[in-house]
Design brief:
This protein has 6 helices and 7 strands. α1 packs across α3 and α4 crosses α6. The chain is globular.
Length: 212
């Protein structure tokens, strides 16, 4: 099986998992968000401006935290998750362009957005480097990339526990515990403006810019 076929197969698997989990996703993630991510969604969304693209927007949990003045587009792989996001936008009275799509292959022209947002997304996207490359492509020069993610801890005992748990998290949730998205941002040429790490180094918030 070639690389493209493997990625397509992995992407279909992620879609199946999150279609299946969509109805209970919000309830299930609440506890983890309270314990690990705190005000992370607010930290990310409050920094967004202009034309905003959120990749892997899920059930729209970020929608209440965006400034009212942004022009919002969200892309989500799972139709079931996307349906919940649309319902949430309607309840909030928020004008949002929510569409089905793959963060690894975006259907937008180059330099379309002022801000791109990832929250708890690069852990499940099959090729995170490709998703970051697409984010870079669709950002305007000087545009901002904002990130909230769980990542590989720099602390050896914590990292060992992550390594032990990862086979199960990948099998059941397509969730990778040992990824380091900051490496992909640097490789793509983003200028890193702010990095905040917490929870023994496993939670990371990043604000970066595309040069220009």
């Amino acid at each position: 099986m070639g690389d493209n076929a493997r990625m397509e197969d992995a992407t279909r698997r992620v879609r199946r998992i999150y279609d299946r989990e969509a109805a209970r996703y919000d309830k299930a993630i609440k506890v983890f968000e309270r314990l690990f991510f705190g005000e992370g969604r607010e930290w990310v969304c409050s920094r967004a401006s202009g034309d905003v693209l959120e990749l892997a927007c899920g059930t729209g949990r970020n929608l209440p935290f965006y400034p009212a003045r942004v022009r919002f587009t969200g892309v989500e792989l799972s139709p079931e998750m996307l349906g919940i996001a649309r319902d949430r936008a309607d309840r909030l009275g928020m004008k949002a362009d929510l569409r089905s799509g793959d963060a690894q292959r975006l259907d937008f022209p180059d330099a379309s957005f002022d801000t791109v947002v990832f929250t708890l997304a690069l852990c499940t996207i099959p090729d995170p480097a490709l998703a970051v490359a697409e984010a870079h492509r669709v950002l305007r020069p000087g545009g901002r990339l904002l990130l909230l993610e769980h990542v590989r801890s720099p602390l050896l005992p914590v990292r060992a526990l992550q390594r032990a748990l990862e086979p199960l998290s990948i099998r059941f949730q397509a969730d990778h515990l040992l990824r380091e998205p900051l490496l992909h941002l640097r490789e793509r040429g983003f200028q890193i403006g702010a990095i905040e790490r917490s929870k023994l180094g496993i939670v990371e918030r990043v604000a970066a810019r595309k040069p220009g």
